[in-house]
Amino acid sequence: MITVVFDNEQWIKAASYFLRTLVFVQEQKISPKAEFDVYDSDQTNYLVIFHYQTPIATGRYQQDDLTTVRPDRVCVRREWRKKGLGRRVLLELEQQGRRNKCTLSRVHGEKQAIPFYEKMGYEVVSDEFIEDGIICVKLEKKLF
């Protein structure tokens, strides 16, 4: 059974942190200090997809301003990849942005993930830059 939760409750935050530790810290070797930053606060909302009680995908909800949502820290547990869960996390976060009257979605995507974001309707809008030791670009998508 798959369930999706979106909130800032501690247990949801803990599940998101668990996945981010697995994917970003352990797999990608990003330092915990860089991964868990000032945007991880008690007010921050996280989306977590569970298979029964096991967290399998997550994303952090951010807003850059009143009309721009910035989904970030999107990751999927290794054994659940290539099953559409990253797409689902991104779509759910975009939908939450729409509920909050956002008309633009902006992501900082890893260079290797550009094809994924382009399939989701995003366009590259920046040159490459380094974020947490990884080559990234900014991508944007209009939300209608």
From TrEMBL:
Name of one Pfam family that matches: Acetyltransf_10
Span of domain N-acetyltransferase: 1-144
The enzyme's E.C. designation: 2.3.1.-
SUPFAM superfamilies reported in the protein's UniProt record: Acyl-CoA N-acyltransferases (Nat)
CDD domains recorded: NAT_SF
UniProt GO molecular function: acyltransferase activity, transferring groups other than amino-acyl groups
Class of enzymatic activity (EC top level): transferase
Keywords: Acyltransferase, Transferase
Keyword Transferase in record: yes
Cytoplasm is among the record's keywords: no
Protein name: GNAT family N-acetyltransferase
Annotated organism of origin: Vagococcus carniphilus
